Automatic annotation (TrEMBL):
Subcellular location: Chromosome, Centromere; Nucleus; Chromosome, Centromere, Kinetochore
Family statement drawn from the similarity comment of this UniProt entry: Belongs to the SPC25 family.
Coiled coil: 63-123
InterPro entries with a match to the protein in the record: Spc25 (IPR045143), Spc25_C (IPR013255)
Subunit structure, interactors included: Component of the NDC80 complex, which is composed of ndc80, cdca1, spbc24 and spbc25. The NDC80 complex interacts with mis12 and zwint.
Annotated ranges, domain Chromosome segregation protein Spc25 C-terminal: 149-218
Gene assigned in the entry: Spc25
Cross-referenced Pfam families: Spindle_Spc25
Protein name: Kinetochore protein SPC25
Principal location class: nucleus
Key words, A-Z: Cell cycle, Cell division, Centromere, Chromosome, Coiled coil, Kinetochore, Mitosis, Nucleus
Keyword Cell division set for record: yes
Phylogenetic lineage: Eukaryota, Metazoa, Chordata, Craniata, Vertebrata
Length: 224
């Protein structure tokens, strides 16, 4: 957890302060290497759980939304069934048929809602899996950093694009809208072709190509 990581880093700093007062330069240099390795491992662990939290949050939001609708449908069905049970034998057959038909319609609508829920859950899981698998590739090959920010969005930060200023960031922010499509919510510096790239990734579902094309566009912009 993040609390455990913070506590571990604090203990490492206290250990380092005490260690420097006892050992010489050579031992300190060796410990520096070990400390850096530990820090890298901690950062990797933090990134891993951040991805898992993102996946879980998205799926929980979708499931809660559809569960609410399903509960409402079940409530309506129960109410209709209670009304049907209260009808006396001498009441008109037509009234009984109307209530029976109404219950059947609600059950069919409930079945459709559950099918939609299953389909959307599957689509969200598949997209998040592709995002997670692509993250490592992007960071290694494209010099890309991916951050989770507010409103369940992901921020993509490119560096080493401007040869005059390698640390200059080129960023865009991505979310998944209510239809389950990728949506770019911001882009700095702005790109005229971002709408075209967004439309293409919705059609092809080729997310790695989408990110690579944006990086190429940023690179071309840096030479202007």
């Amino acid at each position: 957890t993040e609390d455990e990581i913070t506590l571990f880093e604090r203990d490492m700093k206290e250990f380092w302060t005490e260690f420097k007062s006892v050992y010489g330069t050579e031992q300190i240099n060796q410990t520096l290497t070990l400390r850096d390795s530990c820090k890298e491992a901690i950062e990797a662990l933090s990134a891993k759980w951040t991805k898992k939290l993102k996946e879980g949050d998205l799926m929980i939001d979708k499931i809660q939304e559809y569960n609410s609708e399903i509960l409402q449908q079940n409530k309506c069905i129960s109410e209709k069934e209670e009304q049907l049970a209260e009808i006396k034998l001498n009441q008109e057959e037509e009234q009984q048929k109307k209530l029976t038909d109404s219950i059947q319609e609600l059950k069919e609508e409930l079945a459709k809602q559950m099918e939609i829920l299953s389909s959307k859950d599957k689509a969200v899981k598949e997209k998040m899996e592709r995002l997670c698998k692509s993250k490592v590739l992007f960071e290694e090959c494209l010099g890309l950093e991916i951050r989770r920010i507010h409103n369940e969005q992901l921020q993509f930060i490119f560096r080493h694009i401007d040869h005059k200023d390698p640390d200059k960031p080129y960023t865009f922010t991505l979310s998944i809208n209510e239809q389950g499509d990728y949506e770019v919510t911001s882009c700095t510096p702005p790109l005229d072709c971002i709408a075209e790239f967004q439309l293409k990734v919705r059609e092809t579902n080729n997310f790695p190509a989408f990110v690579a094309n944006i990086r190429k566009a940023f690179t071309a912009l840096s030479y202007k």
